[in-house]
Fold:
Amino acid sequence: MIFGRKQRKPISIPAKPVKEWKYATCNYCSTGCSIELGVNEEGKVITSRGHAGADVNRGKLCIKGLLEHDLFNSPGRGTVPLMREKAHLPFAATNWDAALDKTAEKIKEIQTKYGRDSFAIVSTGQLLTEEFYALGKLVRGQIGTNNYDGNTTLCMASAVSGYKRSFGSDGPPGCYEDFEHTGCLMAFGSNLPEQHPIIYWRLKEAREKRHFPLIVVDPRVTMLAQFADIHLPITPGTDTVLINAMMHVIFKEGLADEDYIAKHTQGIEDLRELVQSKYDPKQAQHICGIDEDRIRHVARVYANANSAMSIWTMGINQSTHGSDGVANINNLNLITGNIGKLGGTSLSITGQCNAMGTREWSSCSGLPGYRYLEKAQDRKHIADFWGIDEAFFPAKRGLAQTDIFPAIESGQIKGLWLVATNPMTSMPNQPRIRKAMEKLEFLVVQDIYEDVETNKYSHVFLPAAVWAEKEGCHTNTERRVNLTRNVLPAYKDSKPDFWIFKEMSKRFEDRNKVDFPENAEAAFNEMRELSKGAGRTLDISGMTWDKIEAARGIQWPYTEAEAAADEARLGTVIAIDNKTRVEFKGNQRLYTDGVFQTPSGRANLICVDFVNNNECPDDDYPFWLNSGRVVEHFHTRTRTGKIGNLNKFSPTPYMEMNPDAAAELGIEHQSYVRLVSRRGDAVVMVQLTHRVGRDMLFIPFHFHDCVNRLTLGLLDPYSRQPAFKQNAVRVEKVDQKEAGRLNLERRTF
Structure:
C-alpha cells in the first residue's frame, strides 16, 4: 500500500547486459516458478526473469521473483561467524572451526547434563531439499534429540495432519492443471492474488477459457473474494460447521457419489449420522454466519458439478480446528467422488517455497520419505541404510515447534539451534516467546542475515549462503521437484547450509559415524534410493538433476520404470538449453486408482464435530483480529524488507478497519491507533475500507513487533498449529507523534 503519496516517478527500465542465464527455482512462496538469473561479464547477477518453457509459470513472475536478484547483496547479510558468552555482550568475529566446535561442545554439554532431548532444533521451509535431508541425518542419526521440528508447523502442519488422517499419507493429491478441468472451485481462507499470484494467474486463465463457478469462503473481502461468483463471509473459525451443513444437504438430497463412497472409503455411517443429526443448515447458519439458503445453494452447485475441487491456505490451517478443517474438506471431496480425477481434488496451497521438501525429507515429524518413527520397520529400514543402531531412534515423534517454546519456559529445554527461522517475529504471543528466549543457556542462529531479530538472543551466529549461492531442489505445492543451479559463490565468509551440516556431522562421529553425502547431488541420490518401495507415493527414483532441469520440474511419484519408459520414448541423451523442454512429466495426481495409504486401502471419512474454543469478541475486546500476507512481502520480511522496490510499496504495517466502526470511535483514515489484546499491544496505521466487517480488523503479519504481540498461542490438538486468525482485540486512540516515532524505529533494519 502507498500511503499519502501524491506524485509517482515515471517507470524507466535500464539496459542490463546479460552474458549468461542461469537456471533456478524461485525461493519465495510454494508456487515453484522456474526462474532465470542474468549474469553479466563481471559474474554479477543483475536481473531475473521467468522461464518461458516452464509449465508452472510459463514465463511469468510476481514482483518478488522479478526482484529476487537483489537478494545477493542486500544489506544486513552475515559475513563471518560470531560468538559471545552472554546474549547481552557484544559479538566477536571468529572462524568457522571455532564456531562449530563451540556449538558442538555446548550441545553435548547440555545433553550430558540434562538429557538428550534438552537441546532442540527448529528449521524452516526455505532450505533446499538436500539440505533438509542432510540436517535430518545429522539430527536423527547423530545429535539424537527428539525435539526437532520446522517452522512449517506455523503454516502447513494442519494440512499434513488432515491429509494423514484422511488418506493415510501426506501429499497434495491434485495439481494446477486441475483448474483447466474443474466444474467448480471452492477456496477456503485463500487469497491467491496476494499469496500466490502465479497460481492465481493459472486459475484466472483457466476461467477465461471456460467459465466455472468460483466460491470463496473468507471473513474478509479479499482480492480473490472480489473476483468470485459467490463470497461466503464466514464467522472466523467455523469452516467445519459450513462444510458439515453442506454435507447434510448433499446426503439429504441424494447428491453424494454413493458408488465411490462404497468402493473407496470407510466411516460413512458415522459421518452421515453426525451431519444429518446436528448440522441442518437451519441451525448451522447461526454458528457460521452464512444463511441456510446460501448453504443449500453452494452445496448443490458443488455436488452437481462434473468435477469440483477445493483449495485452502492459512485461513483453514491457522486455527484450533485446522486439522479438522482439512479433514472435513477431504470428506466433502470424498463423498462427491472428487479425489484422484481431472478437476477434482483437495489441494492445499503450501506457504513456503520448500515446505513440501521439509515435509518429505527433513525427518522433522518422522524419518525421511514419509516414514514414521512409530513404525518399527521404518526405524530399522533407515537405521540400516544409514549404518546405525535402530535403538538410537526414538519410538515416537517429540515436541513440535509450538511446544518447544513452552518447554523452554518450563526448563525442559536448555539449548536451541534455529535454522533460517525467526520466531521473534513469526510466533504468536510474542511477550511469552521473548521471556522464553531469555531463559536459554545456549542459542545458535543460522541465518542469511546477521540483523535478524532473533539474533539478539543468540550466543553463536552462523552466516548462511542465500538460495542460488547453493544448489539443490525444491518441491512445490503440486509435488513438482525443481532445481536451483549454483549461480554465485557464497557471500564473503558465509557458507551453504549443506556445508554447515556436513561439518557439524564430523563433530558428532563419537556417537554415530554416518556416511555423510559429499555434496548436494550425492544427497539427492541417497534420497532417490530411499524413495523406492512397492506402493509408495513419494517415489523420486526416476529423477536426476539433469532430467529435472530439462523438464523444468517433475512431479512425484516418478519411478525408475517411468523414467525408463520416458527414455525409450525420448532418448537417453538429455539436451539442456533455455528453449527446449523435455517431457518428463511424472504423475500429476495421486489416488487415481482409488487406493489410499491406509491399512485397508480406503480413505477415512472423519467425523468432525465443532466445539467453539475460539477467542471471540466481547465487551472488553469487541473486534475480531485477522492477519495475512501482502504481495510485496514474504514472511517476517528479513529478505523483502531489504529490497527497496518491495519495501517502498509496503513500508509499514497497517490495519484495515471498517469506516462505520471507525466513525463510532472517532478514528480517522491514516491515523495511528493502539490495539490491545489479552497478550499485549501494538501500534499500527489505520486504513479505512469495507473489505472488513464492522466487528473485524486485518493486519499483515510480516512486520516485527506488531501483530504477533497480540495473537493467541492456542494450538490445534492434532497439528499443534497456532490459531493466528481468531483473536479478540480493542482499539484505542494514541498520541500521533509518539506513535509515528515508534513506528519508524521498529521498521528500521
